[in-house]
Amino acid sequence: MDWLYATMPIAGVEIFWPGLLILGFGVGVIGGFFGMGGAWMVTPGLNILGFPMAFAIGTDIAHMAGKSLISTMRHGRFGNVDYRLGTIMIVGTVGGFEIGAQMVMWLERIGRIDAYVRYGYLVLLSLIAWLVFADIARKMRKDREAMAAGRKMEALSTGIEWHKTFHKIAIPPVVHFKKAGIRCSVWLPIAVSFLTGWLAGILGIGGGLIRMPALIYLVGCPTHVAVGTDLFEVAVSGLYGAATYTYKGRTELVAALIMLVGASVGAQIGSVATKYVRGYGIRLFFGLAVVGCAISIVFKLVAAAHPGVRDLFDTAATVLILGLVAALALHILIKFITGVREELAVKRNQLIQNT
Asked: CB neighbours (10 Å) of residue 253?
């Protein structure tokens, strides 16, 4: 079965290449659906498959840039991208990204990169999972209270509404973002993008892991617009990040190209699937994915700390991360197929009625 393994020329490690295809396709579907590059799954996934952490970060960013560009073009056709908002956010992202990338180089020099990045991921994923499920719980409670009082439930009501507080901080210039339907200080999206750019550089994520929730909860974007706008910003910042890490010699382009083969197909499916699952359906799937990814990182930390069970937990982490990607991608694919069938059925009925 040696043909299933390929030696990466820059990193110098042997990798199970079908795992790269699975990871690319699955994360392509998931990334196109959630509005992010999927690096929060790919970076740990590449590390679990055998890449050193610095190469996992650089390789993932290169793969992410191409895939996000494909998804952005598809979302743009649906009117889900606020290009004005995304362009403004690039200002903060580039500065934050370079600071994060320099910190990664420093951590690699002192030999602490694997532990720091894994613990950083775990803390970040835990906070985001809490935020998403707290929001869903509050939304459900609001809906129950409205029903009990006999009030009509608002279609666009949300659980956590932090963005309303931030919108009151009207530091000039104040800008109206037409596609997102919001009006706020231009410094709000710049500050959010700087933070996400820094995390992108130090954790090897496109920033979408926190940018999509930040656009919803801090900036106030509708979920489907947050998805498309985030992908646009991830694509642009990812191209910059890929150039930075390639210059630093930490990008394995062969692996990135293998993943892009699967991701180019998956991203199209995931992007179209957002037509059929809106709002809190997307947020629920996102929260479940974050929890699964956090558990896989815990397995990897246990394996590193206890050599006696290293093989068991390394295998468990690999199975979980690839299984999670496959399961989520399959579920989104089913939603996509069901939605397309229902849409075609409606069009056929309208055609029959008109004739």
From this structure: 16
